[in-house]
Amino acid sequence: MPEVYEPEPDHDFCYYFEKADLARQFRDWEAVITFAETALALEHPYNPAEQMVFIEGYAHVGEWARAVELSEQANEVSAELVAPMLCRLWKRIGSETAEGVARNEALEKIQKLIACDL
């Protein structure tokens, strides 16, 4: 019944966000970053919660500065709402990633940013 289906719509932020989130579920961090770069380049309404998948992806590929930058941007929107999410996320990132200078510096920045014990 192909005539019943419309053509696939243009891929927008939501499409790439969902693809990134699916890649995250499979721990395919390189794919998360590929979709993140495309999604973040598109115009979209800003929802700090949607940044979590991208933050996690950047952290897991060792792009610590980008992960911290996105965390800071998310926290600026509403620290009261976002900080608890960031705290849980960065605790998981800290437990799942290998020790290193850049990682430890990123964790320290986040700890200062959101006053969270990592």
What order do the helices and strands come in, and which of them pair?
Elements: H1 13-25, H2 29-41, H3 51-60, H4 64-77, H5 79-96, H6 101-114
Structural class: mainly alpha
N-to-C terminal Cα separation, in Å? 53 Å
Strand content bin: under 5%
The radius of gyration over CA amounts to 16 Å
H/E element sequence: HHHHHH
Query: Within the CATH hierarchy, at the fold level, what is the topology?
Result: Serine Threonine Protein Phosphatase 5, Tetratricopeptide repeat
Q: For the residues shown, what is the average pLDDT? A: 94
Q: Count all strands and give the number.
A: 0
- CATH structural class: Mainly Alpha
Number of domains: 1
User: What is the molecular shape?
Assistant: elongated
Description:
This protein has six helices and no strands. It has about 120 residues and is mainly alpha-helical. The protein has a single domain, classed as Serine Threonine Protein Phosphatase 5, Tetratricopeptide repeat (Alpha Horseshoe), CATH 1.25.40. The longest helix is centred in the C-terminal third of the chain and has 18 residues, at about 80-95. It is elongated, with a radius of gyration of 16 Å. About 30% of the residues are buried.
Short structural description:
By secondary structure, the protein is mainly α.
Identify the notable features of this structure and list them briefly.
118 residues, Serine Threonine Protein Phosphatase 5, Tetratricopeptide repeat, mainly alpha
